[in-house]
# Entry
Amino acid sequence: MHNGMSSNILQQQQQEQQLQLVQEYKSAARKRILIVNHEDDVSFALKLVLEVEGQVLYNKMNCFQVDSFNDSILALNNFEKGLYDLLIIAVVMPRMNGFELAKEIRKIDDKVKICFLIAGEIPSKVRFDASSSGQEEGGEGRYLDKFIRLPIENKDLIEQIDRIMI
# Structure
């Protein structure tokens, strides 16, 4: 009976170690980010900063993996639930603005974090509807979408993205 208790304790310790390894892997795994912005140069700069500067700041390889689309409709048609940790969406875009895209994305994945890119003032023709940004009915905010105002310093961008990802 003493051997049986020892093997159970050993099995439990092994399971705890495996669980710890899985948790460490998940925390070390790179975070997937999707940028949707109709300005290719802005998307490229954001991708470069997040992938390269993020690696330097966190002192580890592949901190962020960044994909991008320059067309909101194309982004929506190719979006997959659970694939991304964060979406960075420009507010002002042709065909479908960022708030409309967020509303459609929420129908596919209601848990993905969304952050909006704004440069200057938001035109009055682009209306922000709280329900499109993941707010539950009754005004309770289940998802706290954030805004990033451009231009932004590289370090500030990475720190802001890091806070959003937590």
Summary: The longest strand covers residues 113-119. The first helix runs from residue 2 to 28.
